[in-house]
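fyi for ur records
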Amino acid sequence: MGSKLYEIGRYVNVNAVLHYVEERRHEDGGYCFVSVLDDTNVNDTYYAIKIYNLLGIEFPEPEKTIEFLGNAIQPQTAVVAIAMALEGLVLLGAKDLAREKSEIVFTKYNPAEGKFAVGLGGSEEFGTATPLEATYWVTKAFDAINLKFNPDERDAIRTFVMKFRNGNGYGVKQPTTTMTYQALFTLYILGYRPPRSPHFRNCELCGDWGGFTEVPYSLPPYLEPTFYATRGLELQNESPTYPRRHIWFIRQLQNPNGGFRRSLELGISNFQNTYRALAVIESMMRYL
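which gave:
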């Protein structure tokens, strides 16, 4: 437990991070990044679990959170939230419950029938989830549960993902860091080996900036493309060129309340940003 906390704590204030997360835990086992609200939700709860898991710290009252996530998996729940809840259950040691609940995914996501998320609902990145984003989260959750798609489903997903191929990356109107990573991760998990994309390298900033951008040769850097580009380079067995500068960028994003914002400009903390910031620090430390 102590080593990860100490190592990451050399670069950012992890005690402040833990205080930020802990004071936003509610009696129902869920979390809400706006501490004054009782509107606990799957997204914040998922990232609370991921933060504790990344830091190697025992999760508080896991049985309450397992119940919260299990109850949150309903037919009306957005498919991205269902996938997050399933992965969260696995991380808390409730894989059997996650397997039991996994069938509900196919009411909204059934690639064999050409259904790539019916009634998409909420998104991590875009306001309303894209079918590619939903595909990424479902694939990620099934991998955590050790559930496999059958050959017809795998082929259908691959064909669908390849529709987003755009030059050196993946995207709708142009390749973006987020969609390129989501597409490549999905293909890798399904057992395919697409060619390496130079997109992540083309979005890396040096000099006074650090971080990564969503599209090549642009400014400013943001946290979410920095997280996805970092993951993308790892996926392709590549290394960042400027790890120290990327750590510097992340350090500037920690707010006084202990959480992290998404850009160098003013912004509020949330659990998603906080997990991603810690994950980038953890990754960059390997290259120092």
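Residues 2-285 form a domain with the Glycosyltransferase fold (CATH 1.50.10.20). thats all i got for now
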